[in-house]
């Protein structure tokens, strides 16, 4: 298997609410898609939104889970100011800030928010880590 993630699909409780959050609230560019699913182009991958029950049925697993899902999504940016800006944008879009942005023990600056379905996003500036594959130092 080649090491890559081509799409992240989130099972959501209300597809329209989640589309509103990601498209209008965070400004993610939405692709054309059928009404029961939404796809957004990210830098090097895609984000999919699909009904939680339908996604669980497709994977042949139960749809009910509680508490922490055991993972977070990360959005790395180029400055502390940009962390603050993204965190503010997410909060304005309806996200719940679970950890306000602050200096970290690993030398960076980061905070967390959860989307309308409780999926955690870390927004971080790590001076020792590049923002994305196209920004990798030579």
From TrEMBL:
Domain (VOC) ranges: 4-126
InterPro entries with a match to the protein in the record: Glyas_Bleomycin-R_OHBP_Dase, Glyas_Fos-R_dOase_dom, VOC_core
Name of the protein in question: VOC domain-containing protein
């Amino acid at each position: 298997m080649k090491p890559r993630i081509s799409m992240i699909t989130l099972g959501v409780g209300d597809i329209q609410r989640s589309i509103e959050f990601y498209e209008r609230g965070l400004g993610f560019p939405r692709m054309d898609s059928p009404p029961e699913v939404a796809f957004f182009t990210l830098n090097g991958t895609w984000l999919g939104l699909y009904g939680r029950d339908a996604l669980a049925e497709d994977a042949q697993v139960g749809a009910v889970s509680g508490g922490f899902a055991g993972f977070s999504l990360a959005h790395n940016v180029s400055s502390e100011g940009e962390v603050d800006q993204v965190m503010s944008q997410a909060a304005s879009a309806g996200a719940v800030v679970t950890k306000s942005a602050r200096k970290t023990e690993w030398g960076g600056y980061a905070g967390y928010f959860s989307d309308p379905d409780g999926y955690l996003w870390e927004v971080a500036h790590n001076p020792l880590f590049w923002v994305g594959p196209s920004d990798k130092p030579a």
